[in-house]
Design goal:
mainly beta; 16-stranded parallel β-sheet; nine-stranded parallel β-sheet; 3 helices; 5% helix; globular
Length: 403
């Protein structure tokens, strides 16, 4: 069971149904435009035309809001977006549908923050003034969907993304355009999300379904998501400079033959994080591997380094692991390849320069399926991520949570 704070959820529910402005008047509802004069704008309708959300207002997701095909949502640097509470079909989320675009270009001095209405954070703040960095499930998350190829069951060209009802037509992803462009995402922090829409079906902090490599994603932080931090479902998009802290399930999760690269990433496992890395293979006949390079993974007693399964493929290089020893003592903490994957080792699944700081004298108990040949025990890393890109705008960097 993922961690969930019932008190904060109750606060969020109240905040969701009773939103007031400073004068005590009912907060006006807006369709996503920027002409409202209130300091808070509740968005309740899908975005069907080009729209800008400005940093002088707090934008509140009043439901599952989709940027529909042909429309671009521009979010100014320094803007705070908050999701109302909701579960099941009423879980709040921002969806960038196929053909829609998100232009969310924060900066190192003015990041864009997505969080819960229970969060009292305002534009210009980095740390939440009232929510701890392990409270999760208070709203949904961000879902970006594109037209790039994905290896899907029965080789169908498209399917519905997990985390939103299958009845929502804006939930489809997949296609044949590897260079598809869903917009630009830079310097954003996504916090306290992962609302549950059904048994075992939560929303990831950042979901990337069939997203093409014409999309730019750089400098992204996901904190305290009830399910995975970032999950790729096929597609070809590249992601650079990502930090995931206190994921309730897996920090980094890849599926359906995603063929892009994750470069310079930091994982900070929490006491509910299952795997730092969960790597799945193709579900259809199409094969493709991805690259994870330059990573820094801080463990926790309950977490495992990585689970490579279901014919997983790809290249994993320059990754440093530490702080897993407490978990290794009770059978956790290992990097393993399942029976359907171990045959790929050395061919379509490769490892290079894995380093670990550990009390263990036998690395073969940690790095399994032959991967120990690529692992080295160190007292200080010579590979891994650079923390410099996260300085100034990331909550995790501000409190040095990765140390």
């Amino acid at each position: 069971m993922k961690k969930f704070n019932s008190f904060l959820f109750a606060v969020a529910l109240v905040s969701s149904s009773l939103v007031f402005n400073a004068c005590g008047e009912d907060e006006p509802t807006d369709n996503g435009g920027s002409n409202n004069t209130s300091s808070e704008v509740v968005v309740t309708e899908n975005i069907k035309a080009n729209t800008t959300w400005t940093k002088d207002k707090t934008w509140i997701l009043g439901g599952r809001i989709a940027v529909e095909s042909g429309a671009t949502l521009t979010i100014e640097a320094g803007t705070v977006v908050k999701g109302q509470a909701g579960t099941g079909a009423n879980a709040t989320a921002l969806i960038i549908a196929r053909g829609g675009k998100l232009d969310a270009q924060g900066t190192a001095s003015a990041p864009i923050i997505f969080t819960s209405v229970a969060d009292e954070i305002k534009s210009g703040m980095i740390e939440s003034p009232n929510l701890a960095p392990d409270f999760n499930g208070l709203w949904g998350g961000i879902i970006v969907l594109g037209k790039a190829p994905s290896s899907l069951k029965a080789d169908v060209p498209e399917t519905n993304i997990e985390g939103i009802p299958v009845t929502d037509p804006n939930g489809l992803y997949g296609g044949n355009d590897a260079s598809d462009n869903s917009g630009v995402i830079k310097y954003i922090s996504i916090r306290h999300g992962g609302a549950n829409i059904g048994e075992g079906n939560e929303i990831n902090g950042l979901t990337l379904g069939g997203v093409g490599n014409g999309t730019v994603i750089e400098n992204v932080e996901v904190i305290a998501n009830q399910d995975d931090g970032i999950e790729w479902f096929g597609g070809s998009v590249n992601v650079k400079n990502a930090v995931v802290w206190n994921a309730g399930d897996d920090a980094i999760d890849t599926d359906q033959a995603w063929s892009g690269t994750l470069d310079n990433f930091i994982v900070i496992c929490g006491d509910e994080t299952d795997h730092a890395l969960e790597i799945d293979g193709p579900e259809g006949s199409a094969n493709a591997g991805h690259n994870l390079i330059n990573g820094w993974v801080k463990g926790d007693a309950a977490s495992e380094l990585g689970d490579f399964r279901s014919n997983a493929q790809g290249s994993f290089k320059n990754i440093y692991f530490f702080n897993f020893d407490a978990g290794m003592k009770d059978g956790r903490g290992d990097l393993s390849l399942d029976a359907a994957t171990v045959g790929n080792y050395g061919s379509s699944l490769t490892f290079d320069k894995l380093e670990i700081t550990t009390d263990s004298s036998n690395l073969s108990k940690i790095f399994k399926g032959g991967t120990v040949a690529n692992a080295t025990k160190v007292t200080a890393p010579t590979v891994g991520a650079s923390t410099a890109p996260f300085a100034g705008w990331s909550w995790a960097a501000k409190v040095e949570a990765y140390k």
